[in-house]
Amino acid sequence: MGWLSSFATIFPLNNLGHYLHWHFLLISRSNLIVTILMVATFLAALFLPFPGRRSRKENQ
Amino acid sequence: MSTTEIDRQWTTRLRRRAAGKLPPEKLLPDTQPTYVASWIYVFGVATLSSLIVVIATGCVLALRGPYWWHGSPYGHFVNSLHLWSVELFFFAMVVHLWGKFFMAAWRGGRSLTWMTGVVTFLASIGAGFTGYVAQTNFDSQWISTQAKDGINSGGVGAYFNPLDLGQMLMWHIVLLPIAAVVLTGLHVLLVRIKGVVPPFDESAEAAQ
Ligand code: HEM
Question: Which residue of A3, A44, B81, B169 has the fewest C-beta atoms within 10 A of its own C-beta?
């Protein structure tokens, strides 16, 4: 359980959520983090080279 | 039986139609057009793979029951696998749908592929919601009592009642999983029938 409890200290999941609020926008910190990660994953999927793509072109 | 009679049989007609639309080499192809070699095409299969883990862990939870998933370390573990595969499922599905949106992947007669995706997304949100209210803990009590007012204001509370645990559980473990799996099956078959949509600047023949 040692590493599990240190995980819990870094990511405490057992207390009230934090919310960010600008004007009419209200979002929990975790939802904002997930949204940013999704956008980052989307951009990475578009721009990172796909393994094997070049060699496939050479074979043609 | 004469050959014309055989031709008219529904089994014959159905077989010919199915084989014409989806010959084995289209159903399980060995190559794909070069433009498919991009990470953005991985997210459909990532969604599919997470869905398989969601269903498999959900089956284990159904067999062992709430005492087990609330009360034992192994139960907690499978419960967490179920939750986190759902998180991954939605994550991958959203990246997948953004990808398909920006490449307008409904082009070339693929509107049904897009629409089956839309309906699967809606069914999955319903499955997520009913899953949260089926946890049988304080969290699910809180969510269901908050949600009932929203559902009632939509006038459908008599048919879909978040406070009725039995009904929510049945939606969660019977109706919505069946819908999600059947729709996903149709979705993937449609992708196979139509072939992957060519990029905007690629000719239609390249898609074959
Ligand atoms: C259970 C959820 C889903 C699963 C398992 C799934 C799976 C897949 C797979 C395996 C493919 C082919 C590979 C690829 O291009 O990524 C695909 C293609 C496609 N998906 Fe999904 N998908 C899901 C949800 C959605 C949603 C929510 C949308 C949009 C609203 C969508 C729209 C499309 C379209 C338009 C294509 C065809 C792309 C083409 O012809 O190139 N899908 N899906």
Answer: A3
